[in-house]
Amino acid sequence: MSTIDALKTALIAAGRILVDEDQGDLIFGHVTARLPDDPGLFLMKPHTIGLEEMTPEGIITCNIEGEKVAGTMPRHFEVFIHSEIMRVRPDVNAVVHTHAPYSVAFSALGKPIQAIGHEGSLFCETLPVFSETSDLIVDQVRGKAVARALGDSNYLMLRNHGIVTCGRTIEEATVLALHFEKACRIQLLVESCGGARLVSTPEDAKAKRGRILPQSPQVFKYLTRRCMHRHD
């Protein structure tokens, strides 16, 4: 299997995993993967289909300016989330953007994520938030603003909009999106009961981050297997 074929296979798996984990939103939401041999280009889920409907033939290629350079299907308006992050972050090879429902709901509270569960420990130290607009990121100016808000983090809350996660691989970015959404869901449960009285210590939270994040490739493989079993 060629490198591009492997990336397309991973993108397709990521889309199915995100939908299985309730991060699908009709035809919205998108995932990208940078081409290792040409870092100015990246593969992208096309518009007009669900995340779970991607096929190798349908995946499009875009450049760092956000222009579609290959593929027949339409490009998402919000391509600039991906292109502008990849422009300023050479360490980022994959980006996920979804309208994860618990994350959208949590963003309306204007609160930080607390180290309530394992997942909260991943995001409790800092929570970058993009709040310049809750509208779509439809041009380079807004894309650059998103990239600035992200900074050197691998996750970002878009207020009243959704989440962005990124990583060295599709596996990392996808699993981080799942952890992000679960952290928000758990905290919303606690907030509905009056708020957290007990949280992990900073030392425990740091230890958890070191144990959980490196397992992203294995988690991605498990979720891929689970998708196959479900749809079989």
Structure description:
The protein is an alpha+beta fold and 232 residues long. It has a single domain (3-216), classed as Class II aldolase/adducin N-terminal domain (L-fuculose-1-phosphate Aldolase, 3-Layer(aba) Sandwich), CATH 3.40.225. Helices cover 43% and strands 16% of the residues. It has 8 helices and 8 strands. It has helices at residues 3-20, 79-88, 101-107, 120-123, 140-150, 170-191, 202-212, 216-231; strands at 30-35, 38-44, 60-63, 68-70, 94-98, 129-130, 155-158, 162-167. The chain has an 8-stranded mixed beta sheet with strand order 4-3-2-1-5-8-7-6, sandwiched between helices. A hairpin with a 4-residue loop joins strand 3 (60-63) and strand 4 (68-70). The longest helix has 22 residues, at 170-191. The radius of gyration is 17 Å and the shape is globular. The relative contact order is 0.16.
